[in-house]
């Protein structure tokens, strides 16, 4: 892991290349994001400023757009213009994976709207740094402008106070259309934020780039533009398109038309690699050969509930899962460990969680196994966001349910081995009947198994005789010793003598017989399939 010294001179006195900082520009539809990006930017990348014909026709951003400008000749700021329309949340969730700073754009005449609230929630759970820009200040009447601005700021600070950023998060005023107001305040806020923050770059990990656009360049190869997530790549390296299972050599590298010999984590680049059919991958991942797992069907994650989601998260329910640039559906299985911030260990048992309610409190760690409906491409530590996109986008409800990172994953062929290491259990209680008392230390019970079934798995198991609160001992425990006869009856040796009151209760059949044991969730798949019942 490293953080670059932007613009510092090398030993030969030649300045290092500029450090790239990715700023995600989010907000409600028609809040002026694209116009603001256009006003801020000097260099446009592919698909910037709604060059997509459908975007131009509909007047809204449909895809991620990339453009850039330079600050103090040290930092190259890449603006990631995200769609604001509610139905395009999948695209936004893909874009947030590559952001260093979130720039939330609000229409000052309307304040917080549905999608701006959703973007703020995303920032609260996933972004480390936030700047809020109150745009369209020129639309406010001059005579009442300051009063309206003060009111908007007051309401916004109250909202921000409920997030991790607090009420003192930077708020700036701007206008993409009125030059007298301009956008310099936005640039200044970004510069201040960059100088105050530490850019975390995982340069020591294997190379991975999130590609957002591919196209052919006749006579040269295929151009793939994207943001380097981790690692380093240089001209001449072999890289892999995991989903297409092809490898190609890197021919050239550019960053906003500036030629480079190499690129590192955080850089926004275009790579020219050996030709392939660019229609095979409009958006996806390119990596160091052999690093990425394709065809993933199961993922283990540490699950963090999003506090604004007002519904229960239940096991065996289906959620929309955004992982990298993909959004697909998966069935989740929840489990927990009683300690807070516990790291998963395959050697211990975990309690199955049927439901994680909005009211859930306490110092626990929650995990989830995701079973995807369709294979996905994964890598270690990539962000995961679970959403309920069945909730109507205009409902004013939070659709984002949980988040986390990939901890482990597997393909369908490795399913059994993968699940064997995740020992999730439910507590099951078998009810039996007291048949007779042989003596004060031995009883016969029935109803805990089928008449003709093998009972080897029951031998040695503990059972409880519950007598009620009025007796001296509420519960007496015993151990199953053997079958009694050829029926469904079992002989049980008790740990202590029955009292006279308990003996009377037995004669009156006023006793409850129970056998409590663990049932492993993945036992049906051949996991934890030993016949012996497991008890606490």
TrEMBL record:
Alphabetized Pfam families for the sequence: eEFSec_4th, euk_SelB_III, GTP_EFTU, GTP_EFTU_D2
UniProt keywords, alphabetically: Elongation factor, Protein biosynthesis
Protein origin, superkingdom: Eukaryota
Keyword Transport recorded: no
Keyword presence, Protein biosynthesis: yes
Residue ranges constituting the Tr-type G domain according to the UniProt record: 18-200
Transmembrane segments: none
Coiled coil regions, renumbered to chain: none
Protein name: Selenocysteine-specific elongation factor
Gene Ontology molecular functions: GTP binding; GTPase activity; translation elongation factor activity
GO biological process: selenocysteine incorporation
């Amino acid at each position: 892991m490293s953080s670059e010294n932007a613009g510092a001179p090398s030993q030969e006195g030649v300045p290092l290349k500029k450090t790239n900082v990715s700023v995600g520009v989010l907000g409600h539809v028609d809040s002026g994001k694209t116009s603001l990006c256009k006003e801020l930017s000097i260099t446009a990348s592919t698909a910037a400023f709604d060059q997509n014909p459908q975007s131009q026709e509909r007047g809204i951003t449909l895809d991620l757009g990339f453009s850039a400008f330079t600050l103090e000749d040290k930092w190259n700021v890449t603006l990631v213009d995200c769609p604001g329309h509610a139905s395009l949340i999948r695209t936004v969730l893909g874009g947030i994976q590559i952001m260093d700073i979130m720039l939330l754009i609000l229409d000052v005449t309307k304040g917080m709207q549905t999608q701006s609230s959703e973007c703020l929630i995303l920032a609260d759970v996933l972004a480390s740094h936030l700047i809020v820009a109150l745009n369209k200040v020129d639309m406010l009447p001059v005579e009442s402008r300051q009063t309206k601005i003060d009111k908007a700021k007051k309401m916004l600070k109250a909202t921000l106070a409920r997030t991790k950023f607090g009420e003192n998060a930077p708020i700036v005023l701007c206008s993409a259309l009125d030059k007298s107001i301009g956008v310099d305040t936005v640039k200044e806020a970004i510069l201040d934020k960059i100088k105050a923050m530490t850019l975390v770059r995982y340069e020591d990990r294997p190379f991975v780039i999130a590609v957002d656009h591919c196209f052919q360049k006749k006579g040269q190869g295929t151009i793939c533009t994207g943001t380097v997530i981790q690692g380093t790549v240089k001209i001449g390296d072999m890289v892999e398109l995991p989903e297409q299972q092809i490898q190609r050599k890197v021919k050239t590298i550019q960053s906003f038309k500036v030629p480079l010999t190499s690129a590192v984590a955080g850089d926004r680049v275009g790579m020219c690699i050996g030709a392939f059919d660019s229609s095979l991958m409009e958006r996806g991942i390119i990596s160091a050969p052999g690093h990425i797992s394709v065809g993933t069907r199961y993922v283990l994650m540490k699950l963090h509930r999003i506090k604004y989601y007002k519904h229960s998260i239940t096991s065996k329910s289906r959620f929309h899962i955004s992982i990298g640039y993909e959004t697909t559906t998966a069935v989740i299985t929840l489990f927990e460990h009683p300690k807070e911030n516990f790291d998963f260990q395959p050697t211990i048992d975990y309690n199955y969680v049927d439901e994680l309610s909005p009211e859930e409190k306490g110092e626990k760690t929650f995990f989830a196994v995701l079973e995807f409906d369709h294979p996905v491409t994964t890598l270690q530590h990539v962000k995961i966001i679970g959403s309920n996109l069945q909730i109507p986008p205009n409902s004013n409800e939070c659709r984002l349910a949980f988040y986390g990172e990939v901890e482990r994953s597997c393909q369908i062929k490795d399913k059994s081995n993968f699940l064997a290491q995740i020992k999730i259990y439910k507590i099951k209680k078998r009810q039996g009947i007291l048949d007779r008392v042989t003596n004060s230390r031995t009883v016969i019970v029935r109803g805990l198994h089928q008449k003709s079934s093998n009972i080897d798995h029951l031998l040695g198991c503990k059972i409880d005789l519950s007598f009620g609160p009025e007796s001296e001992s509420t519960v007496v425990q015993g151990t199953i010793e053997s079958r009694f006869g050829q029926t469904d009856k079992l002989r049980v040796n008790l740990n202590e003598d029955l009292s006279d009151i308990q003996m009377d209760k037995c004669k009156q059949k006023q006793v409850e017989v129970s056998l409590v044991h663990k049932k492993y969730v993945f036992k049906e798949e051949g996991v934890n399939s030993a016949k012996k019942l497991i008890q606490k």
